[in-house]
Structures are given as C-alpha cells and as structure tokens.
Q: What sequence folds into this?
C-alpha cells in the first residue's frame, strides 16, 4: 500500500471561493441596481431646475419628490440587503475555511514546527472582515465608473472629457498609491507578525523572564521588532498620505472644473443649469468608488497578505486523504530499519531501529540524553514520520491509519505535559464525549482519582491555559489518566515519572502492570530505574541506534560488562529483574 497523502490543501480554498461565488454575483447584481438608483439625485435635480422652477408647478414638484423619496427608500433597502449578503458571505467563507486552516496549522506544527501557525486563524479573520467591510463594496461599485462617465458624455462632450480626465488622474493616483506602499506595507505586515509571535512566546515563559531578570533584554528584542513595524508603516503611511492629499485636491479641482465647464456651456446655451448641477453630482458619484478603494487600500493589502499566507500554508502542508478503515489494532508494534529526522532537519536522530513489541509487553526505552528516546516515542505514535523504514501497527504502516480512527487506541504521554484549557474531566476524556465512568476509571488507573477529589472542584476543576493551575506532578497524573482513557491498545509514556513523588510512582507502576495484564503494549521511556521492575524488555538506545534489546537482567548484565557498547546508559542501581 502506498502513502495516501496529497497536496490538495488548496482545493479547500478553491472550494470555499466557489461556494461564495453565488453570493458575489448577487452582490454585483445588487450593486448594479444601487448604482442605477444613484441617478435619482441628479435626475431629481435636473427636473427641479429645468421643469419645476421653469413651470413653477407645485404638483410636479410634489410628484417628483414623492417618486424620488420612494426610489431612495428602495435604495436603502437594497443597500441593507447587499450588506447582509456580504456579512453572510464573510461568515460562510470563514466557516468553510477556518476549521481547515486551523487543522492544517495543527498538522503543520507537527510536521514543521517553528513556522508562524498561530497567525493562521487571525488571517482568516482579516479576510472575513475585509469581505464584510466597506472595502468590498468599493470594489463592487468600481465597475460602474465607466457608465457614469458615459452618462457625462451623453450630457455633453466636454463634460464627458472632464469626467474622463478626472477619472484617469484619480486612477493613476490609486495605482501610484499601490506601487508606493505595497512593499512597505507587506514588510510591515511580516514584521508585525514576527513581533506578535515573539510576544506570545515570551509570555509563555513570563515566569523565567521575571525570575532571571530577563525582562529588559526580552523587551529590547521585541522593541526592535516593533520599531521595524512602526518605521515601515510610517513609510507606507507617509506615501499614502501624500497620495491622499493630492487625491483630495484633484477631486475638489475636478468639481470646480466640471462646474466651470458646465457654467460656460450654460452661457453658450449648450446645456441647461439643471444639467450642469446633475453632471457635477454624477461625476462626484463616478469618482466615489475609486476614492473609497484608495481609503480602504490598507485593509485590502492586509487581506491580500492574509490570503497569501493562507494559500502558502494550505499548499505547503499536505492534506491527509480519506484512508481506508482498518480493524481496531491488537497492539503489535514493529519497527523496520526505522530512520527518523526531526521535522525541518535532515540529520536523522534514529538511525535504522528495528524491533518488535508484542501485545501485552512492557518495554522500557533507556539511553543517555539526546540518544533519540523521545524521537522513538513520537515515531511510535505517528507524530514524526519515517524518513526511511517504517513503523507498523498490527502489520499496517502507521501512515495508513486515519489519525482520528487510530487516536482512541493510542495513549501518549509526551515528555512536556501540556493540558488544554477546560476541566480536568474534559482533559481526561480528550475533549470527546464525556463518559464520567470512563473518566473516573482512567483517573483511578493513573492513581489520580484521590488527588483530583482533593481539588476544590474535583473533576470540574478548571486547569487553566496549558494546565497552569495544577502542579507539575498533578499535571503529569492527569495526563497519564488522559493517556489510559478508553483503554487504548498501545500506550507510549515519555518520562511519565519525571515529576512524580513516591506515591505517584507506585500508582504509575500499578497502571503499567494493569495495562500489561489487559494485554496492552506499553512503551515507557524513563531515566529512573524504579519502573524497570515492571518491564518485560529493555531497549537501550545509543546515538539513535539499538545497542541492546532484551530482558532487563540480560541488559543490565551487559551494562556491567567492561567495554560494553551500552555504557552510554548508566543506571544508579540495577533493578530487580522482572518475570
Ligand atoms: N524538534 C527538533 N528539531 C531538531 N532536532 C531535534 C528536535 N528534537 C530533538 N532533536 C534532536 O534529536 C536528538 C534526539 O532527541 P530526543 O529528544 O529524541 O532525545 P532523548 O533521548 O529523548 O533525550 P532526553 O533524555 O534528554 O529527553 C537530539 O540530538 C536533539 O538535539
């Protein structure tokens, strides 16, 4: 079987755009009628000047005023509906995209840590805000600019010429605005993303920053990044300000010009006074979308950069395709010449590991710091993928399992325990359907039940962001309960006892024995020897390779031997050999 991963992340984006297309067409149709109704004002003016004032007819004034008010009411209604369609389009686009983008960010973080994944949801927000805001309306009205100019030509050739020249000047200024500000705004946006990211990672380490007096240094670093953003934004704003200043001057000059030319044509008797006023209003209207687009340019640039980042993210991180459903695993783990390099690195930290762990076996993985133990744990649960060789569960390559389907059969306790904001019960149940019996059972197996009951709100205790309201040992016990929740077939524990006290260690040993008796495969990574009494086999890793894989007494006998190749792992005391 081949790996069924594909690079069709962009398909999600394309499909979201396609689903919104109907709404965009509706908005354009509404824009058409709205722009037609814009003629109500100038036409009313024309009629008042040329008909009512000339005929002094009150009835005509009343009728055309009533008509104008009616049409303006229709205008208001169309405007409301258009804006509601835009809001719904933004929400639809967001709902189609946000979940996928966040999911891709998660997968991206696993495959390529260190990139700016936290920016992804904010980018979807920027796009939604742009779609629902005034920017899009300006862009929807822009196609009608030529029609307004054509109407100016219908009024009089020279009025048309003034409107056309005006539109060309303003369009040139808009293009200049884009050319002058594009680079600076793009760089400012990247600098701002970098500064925000630096702040979020520093805040996570706020305690260390405070304790070791690093605040000034950290702030200094952030300040440099922030200054970059500010100076680039200032450059862009200065340029945009200059363009906007000229823009306003040009627009006012054009109003003067059109009235001047109009008045001259009235003097010549070519047009009426009403036409002159109507032309001035129509030209103002023709230039309004261009002016609005320039005013909204920054939001447009922000949305464009967000779109670019989302596109890059979706195309860079391969989408997991639907995989064939496999039967629930029994828990046999095999590694065949497994080579693993950390994401983003091509230096392997596991170099051809081969081993077989049978269901019901407890394996201890030991080795010096940096030997590759956590790498092996990550590879066994499918977090890091094999550069060569493979990891198989019940004979099937781990990549062929759907992570959502395999997940409930896997218990994983990472070296750095992170809980999620929510209650202890929710964390133990992995934020799935909450079955109180299963939660308590898992907590009891992990030896966490009594400890949880002693907390003020018991299982309902909120653990805070990352589980910060719990102590390190409490966090580790809750995470162990999460790992054994639902009786998974394979349990991988990376340093599960690093923060445990004696009582916790006993509970952990009991949990491992319990899992073994239930026929589960348990892989436990530990620097401490206390757990080694409950293991069946010990796998010694030295520099990413298996130095020894045998029963504990054999391994420890080998370790005592002079010139042993497993001497990289030194246990303070050899454990009692288990059965
Ligand atoms: N995300 C990473 N990116 C790059 N290199 C990494 C990454 N994680 C680990 N390494 C490297 O891989 C090697 C093995 O690391 P690993 O965490 O597997 O060791 P370990 O045996 O679990 O160590 P320890 O007992 O200290 O936890 C180390 O040399 C480490 O520098």
A:
């Amino acid at each position: 079987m081949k790996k069924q991963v594909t690079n069709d992340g962009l398909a999600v984006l394309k499909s979201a755009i396609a689903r919104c297309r109907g709404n965009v067409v509706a908005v354009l149709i509404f824009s058409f009628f709205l722009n037609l109704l814009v003629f109500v004002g100038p036409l009313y003016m024309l009629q008042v000047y040329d008909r009512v004032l000339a005929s002094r007819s009150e009835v005509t004034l009343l009728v055309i005023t009533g008509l104008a008010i009616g049409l303006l009411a229709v205008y208001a209604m169309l405007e409301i509906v258009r804006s509601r369609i835009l809001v719904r389009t933004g929400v639809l686009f967001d709902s189609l995209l946000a979940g996928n983008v966040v999911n891709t960010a998660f997968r991206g973080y696993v495959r390529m840590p260190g990139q700016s994944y936290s920016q992804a949801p904010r980018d979807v927000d920027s796009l939604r805000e742009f779609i629902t805001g005034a920017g899009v309306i300006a862009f929807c009205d822009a196609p009608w600019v030529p029609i307004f100019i054509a109407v100016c030509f219908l009024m009089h050739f020279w009025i048309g010429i003034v409107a056309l020249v005006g539109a060309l000047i303003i369009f040139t200024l808009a293009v200049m605005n884009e050319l002058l500000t594009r680079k600076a705004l793009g760089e400012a946006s990247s600098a701002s993303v970098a500064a925000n990211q630096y702040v979020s990672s520093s805040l996570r380490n706020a305690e260390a920053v405070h304790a070791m007096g690093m605040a000034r240094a950290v702030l200094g670093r952030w300040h440099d990044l922030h200054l970059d953003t500010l100076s680039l934004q200032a450059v862009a704003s200065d340029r945009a300000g200059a363009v906007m200043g000229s823009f306003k001057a040009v627009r006012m000059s054009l109003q003067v010009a059109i009235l001047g030319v109009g008045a001259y044509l009235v003097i010549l008797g070519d047009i009426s006074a009403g036409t002159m006023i109507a032309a001035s209003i129509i030209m103002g209207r023709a230039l309004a979308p261009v002016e609005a687009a320039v005013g909204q340019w920054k939001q447009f640039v922000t949305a464009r950069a967000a779109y670019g980042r989302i596109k890059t993210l979706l195309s860079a991180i391969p989408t997991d395709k639907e995989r064939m459903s496999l039967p629930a695993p029994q828990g046999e783990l095999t590694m065949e010449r497994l080579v693993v390099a950390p994401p983003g690195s091509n230096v392997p930290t596991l170099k051809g590991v081969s081993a077989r762990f049978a269901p019901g076996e407890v394996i201890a993985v030991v080795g010096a710091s940096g030997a590759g133990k956590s790498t092996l744990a990550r590879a066994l649960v499918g977090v890091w993928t094999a550069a060569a060789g493979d990891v198989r569960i019940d004979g099937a390559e781990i990549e062929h399992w759907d992570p959502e389907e395999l997940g409930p059969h896997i218990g994983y306790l990472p070296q750095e325990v992170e809980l999620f904001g929510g209650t202890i019960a929710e964390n133990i149940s992995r934020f799935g359907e909450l079955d109180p019996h299963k939660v308590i059972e898992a907590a009891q197996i992990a030896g966490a039940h009594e400890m949880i009951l002693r907390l003020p709100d018991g299982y309902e205790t909120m653990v805070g962001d990352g589980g910060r309201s719990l102590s390190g040992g409490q966090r580790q016990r809750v995470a162990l309960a999460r790992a054994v929740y639902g009786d998974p077939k394979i349990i991988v524990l990376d340093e599960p006892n690093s923060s445990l006290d004696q009582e916790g260690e006993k509970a952990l040993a009991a949990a491992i024995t319990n899992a073994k008796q239930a026929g589960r495969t348990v892989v436990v990574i530990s620097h401490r020897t206390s757990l080694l009494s409950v293991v069946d086999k010990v796998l010694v890793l030295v520099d990413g390779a298996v130095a020894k894989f045998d029963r504990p007494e054999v391994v420890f006998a080998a370790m005592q031997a002079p010139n042993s190749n497993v001497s990289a792992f030194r246990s303070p005391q050899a454990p009692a050999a288990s059965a």
Observations:
- The radius of gyration is 35 Å.
- The mean pLDDT is 84.
